[in-house]
């Protein structure tokens, strides 16, 4: 009985002591004004956590001037027992990076440290880890709790040449979370970024596990490639965050793979997905400029829509996505063109309009999602299609509209071929174009579609004057694209194989010798065999020649 | 053997799950320039080149877009000396065109050296792109490994790499 009583007393002591730690008052500077410091038997530690940021411009990082330090917002700060490494208390920093916490004092040497995890109130955590899933932490200086009391000024400054990059990634993703919350009235799910030097895989977003590149499952992987690191490339990080938002709030059918800026013959799904990502830095930075300009890391005078990717001291990419110039940044199969359209729509109608479309069932239930699906959803949600919308799309040579030969979607309303090549669009519900021409007995004719743009894939059918089908052709090359056979697979380098949306690959051609003099009809439609990479819309030129 | 046959479907299923598990990666955009440096002799590795040895190199630059003013600069560092060939080039390039610069260099008398080729395009009032490649001659400099941070547990029992 006596033994039990001693045990009870011991347990009670431990519980009281634990409760003292667990109920320690802590928090960020924003909420700390009503706190009464140093109650009896406790120590209070406070300070500010900052990380060294890197300011960048079109030529790379700006290394002159005083280093810029930014607050570590919503970061987890812990008080650690220096002798046992036990965590005694923790707090979350405020928006100014400040923290304070009180904990049971028992005469040890402790130190504060900040962990690479941010928890915005009411949001799931954002974490930055290495590939072994360890968080990064920066420790502050030791504090000797020889005397109870208040220990203010326990600041931690995280330099760029140490793990400042981890905290920049955290800060950029925090901006992204707040941006999304402003649009969706909800934060995204928890997000992990994997920053690991000494790797050589590059920077990318994974929507799930694979054994080669996505070994930790979903997340943004910030791994260097040939000396190119991205932990301070905010635009690259926002780009990948854009993919994350598409995966969780919208729909993304992109097959992935390598893509270079200026390639305007991409798979439409890839161009949409990457264009969405390319526009995201501009969307977020325009929003930051209006709401929290101190969060921007681009130098004064650099356009908010400029996408900059540094390598070493210089920039390997510096392109204003809203002012990229003309070709090659045209067509729905060009990611820069898609980005420019989205930025222009944002400037004209606000980001909420775009967000409403990309998160609507009209868009997400469509397969495949690409710029065409966005346009269809934009219309179905009743968004403006009058100016400046046609100009915005037209500036990128994208014409989701009836052409000048409409209405030519029936035999009886076929346009007449007069010897001059005709420029058509595949657009509208019926999506058929009919062109008639006169042929002479014994003469040879060649009918071709050429100059395909915006993902067009044509299919030609020739009819005689009694509307009987004479000939048909899908692809002039004679190649039929069969999923998994000659396209729609990944090669040994992991690149997606598809017929590129250039002027000729998916064009059609028919040659015939007329058996009689009379009228013939050419039907042009979007190919019923079109690969997933192509579109149902697009533009083409019809030519009928006779030697 | 029978046992293996019995478990073969399960093994196959496991392999299929491992290699078909859903992750797809969305990579960041690349600049529309590609640069490579290679030794003409393919039977020798750059690390095997002896001090003072003369080697022929080929620098290839491909532009994936039409450009009117592309610049290519080859930098030699660490005592690598140019023997022959042009170390720079500037001019237009059409989409897919490959520019080839053939140079002969002498490896440094001791230690190692590097050859870096950088291609850049700066369109007036337009985008700026750059890409580079480098090749080390001789054995690589031994870099002192960075001090490893301590691995500790955070308040939730997770691993943290603690830097001081």
Explain this structure to me?
The complex is a heterodimer of chains A (547) and B (164). Chain A has 547 residues and is α+β, with helices and mostly antiparallel strands. Chain A has helices spanning 2-22, 164-184, 234-249, 268-291, 335-349, 351-358, 361-364, 371-380, 389-394; strands spanning 26-28, 42-53, 56-57, 60-61, 68-71, 75-81, 87-92, 98-104, 109-118, 126-129, 135-139, 143-144, 150-151, 156-158, 191-196, 203-206, 219-223, 306-311, 314-320, 415-416, 422-426, 432-439, 444-453, 458-463, 469-473, 489-490, 496-497, 509-513, 518-526, 538-545. In chain A, the strands form 7 sheets. In chain A, strands 6, 7, 9, 10, 11, 12, 15, 16 and 17 form a 9-stranded mixed β-sheet that branches. In chain A, strands 1, 2, 5, 8, 13 and 14 form a 6-stranded mixed β-sheet that branches. In chain A, helix 3 packs across helix 4 (268-291), helix 4 (268-291) packs parallel to helix 5 and helix 5 (335-349) packs across helix 6 (351-358). Chain A is elongated. The model of chain A is unreliable at 1-7, 9-23 and 30-39 (pLDDT under 50). With 164 residues, chain B is mainly beta. Chain B has a domain at 30-136: Immunoglobulin-like. In chain B, 12% of the residues lie in helices and 48% in strands. Chain B has 1 helix and 11 strands, in the order αβββββββββββ. Chain B has a 4-stranded antiparallel β-sheet with strand order 2-3-7-5, with no helix packed on it. A 4-stranded antiparallel β-sheet of chain B has the order 6-4-8-9, with no helix packed on it. In chain B, strands 10-11 form a two-stranded antiparallel sheet. The longest helix of chain B is centred in the N-terminal third of the chain and has 19 residues, at 2-20. Chain B starts with a helix and ends with a strand. The model of chain B is unreliable at 10-22 (pLDDT under 50). Classes of the chains: A alpha+beta (547), B mainly beta (164). At the A-B interface, strand 6, strand 11, strand 16, helix 3 and helix 4 of A face strand 1, strand 9, strand 10 and strand 11 of B.
């Amino acid at each position: 009985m006596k033994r039990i009583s001693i045990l009870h007393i011991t347990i009670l002591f431990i519980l009281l002591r634990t409760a003292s730690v667990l109920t320690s008052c802590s928090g960020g500077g924003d909420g700390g004004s009503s706190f009464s410091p140093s109650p009896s038997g406790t120590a209070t530690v406070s300070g500010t956590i900052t990380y060294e940021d890197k300011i960048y411009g079109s030529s790379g990082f700006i290394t002159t001037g005083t280093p810029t330090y930014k607050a570590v917002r919503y970061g987890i700060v812990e008080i650690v027992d220096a002798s046992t490494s036990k965590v005694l208390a923790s707090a979350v920093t405020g928006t100014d990076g400040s923290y304070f916490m009180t904990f049971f004092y028992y005469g040890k040497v402790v130190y504060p440290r900040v962990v690479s995890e941010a928890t915005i109130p009411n949001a799931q955590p954002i974490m930055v880890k290495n590939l072994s899933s360890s968080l990064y932490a920066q420790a502050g200086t030791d504090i000797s709790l020889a005397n109870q009391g208040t220990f203010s000024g326990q600041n931690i400054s995280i330099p760029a040449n140490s793990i400042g990059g981890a905290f920049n990634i955290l800060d950029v993703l925090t901006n992204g979370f707040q941006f999304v919350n402003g649009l969706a009235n909800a934060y995204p799910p928890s997000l992990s970024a994997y920053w690991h030097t000494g790797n050589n895989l590059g920077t990318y977003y994974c929507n799930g596990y694979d054994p080669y590149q996505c070994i930790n499952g979903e997340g943004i992987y910030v791994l260097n490639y040939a000396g190119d690191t991205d932990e301070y490339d905010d635009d690259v990080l926002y780009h990948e965050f854009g993919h994350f938002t598409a995966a969780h709030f919208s729909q993304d059918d992109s097959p992935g793979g390598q893509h270079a800026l200026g390639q305007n013959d991409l798979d439409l799904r890839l161009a949409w997905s990457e264009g969405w990502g390319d526009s995201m830095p501009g969307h977020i930075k325009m929003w930051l400029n209006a709401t929290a300009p101190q969060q921007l890391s681009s130098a004064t005078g650099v356009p908010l829509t400029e996408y900059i990717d540094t390598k070493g001291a210089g920039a390997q990419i510096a392109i204003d996505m809203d002012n990229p110039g003309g070709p090659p940044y045209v067509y729905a199969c060009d990611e820069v063109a898609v980005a420019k359209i989205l930025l222009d729509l944002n400037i004209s109608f606000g980001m909420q309009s775009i967000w409403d479309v990309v998160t609507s069932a009209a868009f997400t239930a469509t397969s495949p999602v690409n710029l065409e699906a966005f346009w269809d959803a934009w219309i179905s949600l009743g968004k403006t299609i009058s100016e400046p919308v046609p100009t915005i799309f037209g500036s990128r040579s994208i014409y989701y509209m009836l052409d000048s030969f409409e209405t030519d979607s029936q035999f009886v309303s076929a346009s007449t071929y007069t010897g001059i090549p005709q420029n058509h669009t595949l657009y509208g519900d019926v999506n058929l174009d009919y062109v008639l021409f006169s042929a002479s007995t014994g003469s040879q004719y060649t009918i071709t579609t050429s100059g395909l743009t915006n993902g067009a894939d044509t299919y030609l059918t020739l009819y005689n004057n009694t509307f009987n089908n004479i000939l048909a052709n899908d692809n002039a090359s004679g190649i039929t694209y069969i999923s998994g056979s000659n396209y729609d697979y990944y090669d040994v380098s992991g690149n997606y194989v598809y017929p590129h949306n250039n002027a000729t690959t998916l064009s059609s051609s028919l040659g015939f010798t007329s058996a009689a003099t009379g009228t013939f009809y050419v039907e042009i439609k979007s190919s019923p065999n079109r690969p997933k990479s192509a579109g149902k819309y697009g533009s083409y030129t019809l030519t009928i020649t006779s030697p | 053997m029978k046992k293996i046959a019995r478990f073969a479907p399960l093994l196959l299923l496991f392999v299929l799950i491992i290699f078909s598990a859903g992750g797809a990666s969305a990579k960041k955009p690349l600049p529309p320039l590609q640069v490579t440096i290679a030794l003409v002799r393919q039977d020798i590795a750059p690390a095997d080149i002896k001090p003072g040895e003369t080697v022929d190199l080929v620098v290839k630059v491909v532009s994936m877009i039409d450009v009117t003013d592309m610049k290519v600069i080859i930098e030699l560092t660490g005592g690598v000396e140019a023997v022959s060939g042009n170390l720079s080039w500037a001019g237009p390039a059409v989409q897919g065109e490959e520019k080839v610069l053939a140079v002969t260099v002498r490896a440094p008398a001791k230690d190692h050296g590097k050859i870096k080729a950088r291609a850049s395009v700066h369109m007036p009032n337009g985008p700026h792109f750059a890409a580079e490649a480098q090749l080390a001659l001789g054995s690589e400099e031994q870099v002192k490994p960075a001090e490893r941070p301590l691995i500790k547990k955070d308040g939730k029992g997770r691993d943290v790499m603690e830097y001081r």
